[in-house]
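Quick one, probably user error.
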């Protein structure tokens, strides 16, 4: 009985972890990448291909081969990132929601495991 509950709980936990990914990765071939899922007015964290620090930007639009935005909602410094340098883009709002859902799911699994072990 214990092995069955532990197996179910680990399966449920892994499902929450897998579903919590909110990052879009891009290939080196810029022509194959689809940037249409980026929404104007949202804050994204952009990871660069060359290993330079991640850059936070309030996305505005795409101009030619560049992502254009500002450094934040209050900081109006213009940020221009070439598509060729982008390795991945992470939506901060979706990441926070997914993290919260993962924590709630893990707490539910822990409660299930504890109640199942006390029932024996």
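Nope, works fine. Designed sequence:
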């Amino acid at each position: 009985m214990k092995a069955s509950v532990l197996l179910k709980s680990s399966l449920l936990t892994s499902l929450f972890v897998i579903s919590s990914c909110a990052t879009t990765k891009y290939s080196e071939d810029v022509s194959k990448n689809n940037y249409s899922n980026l929404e104007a007015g949202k804050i994204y964290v952009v990871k660069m291909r060359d290993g330079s620090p991640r850059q936070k930007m309030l996305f505005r639009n795409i101009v030619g081969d560049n992502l254009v935005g500002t450094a934040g909602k209050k900081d109006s410094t213009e940020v221009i990132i070439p598509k060729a340098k982008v390795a991945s883009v992470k939506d901060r709002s979706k990441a926070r929601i997914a993290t919260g859902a993962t924590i709630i799911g893990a707490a539910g699994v822990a409660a299930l495991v504890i109640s199942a072990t006390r029932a024996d």
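The helical segments are 2-19, 92-119.
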